[in-house]
What does this fold into?
Amino acid sequence: MPRAKSEVSDRGSKTKTSAEEPLPEWAEAEIKSVSFGDPEVIIRSGYFLDIYENDYKVDIQIYEALPDGRTIVEGLDVPKNMKITDFLKGFVYEFKIKVFKGDLSQKLIELLKTKYDLDMDAIYRFELKELQIMDV
It folds into this structure.
């Protein structure tokens, strides 16, 4: 039988930490307006984790890490000229990926590190350029 609220201890209750506090307006504005530089095109092999046909986005797992160290790319943009319905899970592909990088200001980097314990100096955006199914 469930305990009444008065019987439940609040010793383990969390107090609001700085990680739960919202970002200051200036920081949020900077993140939303970050400008991305020219893309770097990289080639990686991997497979689809999820395919979001309506949004023209995919999640992929790659075997060789990206320059920032990640091996899972979520929300990879798929150009509208690609036929996303032909993408197959369970097959290995060679992906050509455009990597866009937007650097953050030193002030924002320091805020994220000190107040939110987040080590981040840039925002990345990824776009699928080409793909080729591999014979493995």
Observations:
- The CA atoms of residues 19 and 116 lie 5 Å apart.
- The radius of gyration is 20 Å.
- The longest helix spans residues 106-116.
